[in-house]
Amino acid sequence: MTTATSPRALEHPTRDQIRLEAVLHALADPVRLRIVRDMARERAELSCSYFDLPVTKSTTTHHFRVLREGGVIRQTYRGTAKLNALREDDLEALFPGLLVTVLAAADAQATREDAAGARADR
Amino acid sequence: MTTATSPRALEHPTRDQIRLEAVLHALADPVRLRIVRDMARERAELSCSYFDLPVTKSTTTHHFRVLREGGVIRQTYRGTAKLNALREDDLEALFPGLLVTVLAAADAQATREDAAGARADR
DNA sequence: ACGCTAGTACGGTAACCATCGTAGTACGGC
DNA sequence: GCCGTACTACGATGGTTACCGTACTAGCGT
Question: A22, A81, B32, B118: most buried by Cβ count inside 10 Å?
Answer without folding.
Answer: B32
